[in-house]
Amino acid sequence: MNALGIDLAGSPKRKTGFCVLHCNLYCRTDILYTDSEIVERVLQERPSIVSIDAPLFLPKGRVSLDVKGPPHFRVCDRELQRMKIRFFPITLGPMRILTARGMKIRAVLEKLGFKVIESFPGAVQDILGMPRKQQGIERLRQSLIDYGIKGDIMKKDITGDELDAITSALIGKMYLDGNYTAIGADDEGFMILPRIS
Q: Is the distance from CB of 142 to CB of 129 less than 8 angstroms?
């Protein structure tokens, strides 16, 4: 069972990290751009789960991203605040663009029959005691290697987008293994994090 991770960019002109993670933690990574490229690669890989690093749901009571708030926060966002995990609210300018793209791709992939979950690599890395990419790409790469990730993680020119895609795929694998925590609400969607004891 393969998990697929996508570190989605807000714009198709910017790099989207892509990772396929096998059950033995061997990964293959790539950089993609357009929605059609992303969907085509998912169809080629036929993963057991697709884990997307982007908000995939609106806060309950929010009509659309175009109508200015409130509400600005989802249940999962408030839970991240409680956990003191840093994040950007989905109603922030660039995040609105990313959220719209994430929701669109989720809808397309679910219509094609794929299981899609929302992930947040920064939170996953915080919980697992790893540095975020902003603290140094090489430090994050080494932390993922120490965790057991193999394959394209060894590329010396690997990007932060690919490392976040690997992290997204890793939480997808944890979901498949039943080793996860879901924060959110039934009527609003969930974010998947590592199991928190």
A: no
End-to-end CA distance of the chain: 25
Please state whether beta strands 150-151 and 16-21 pair in parallel, antiparallel, or not at all (unpaired). Answer: unpaired
Q: What are the pLDDT digits (tens) for 126-182? A: 999 999 999 999 999 999 999 999 999 999 899 999 999 999 999 999 999 999 999
Residue 108: give the domain boundaries: 3-194
Q: Bridge-partner residues for 192, per DSSP?
A: 182
Prediction pTM value: 0.94
Helix (H, G, I), strand (E, B), or coil: what is residue 117? strand
Residue of 146, 117, 121 lying closest to 56 (CA atoms):
117
For residue 178, give the CATH number of its domain. Answer: 3.30.420
**Are 165 and 19 within 8 A, CB to CB?**
yes
**Backbone angles phi and psi of 7, in degrees to 5:** -95, 90
Domain tally for the chain?
1
Residue indicated by tokens 């200015």: 68
Q: What is the dihedral of CA 93, 33, 103, 95, to 10 degrees?
A: -20
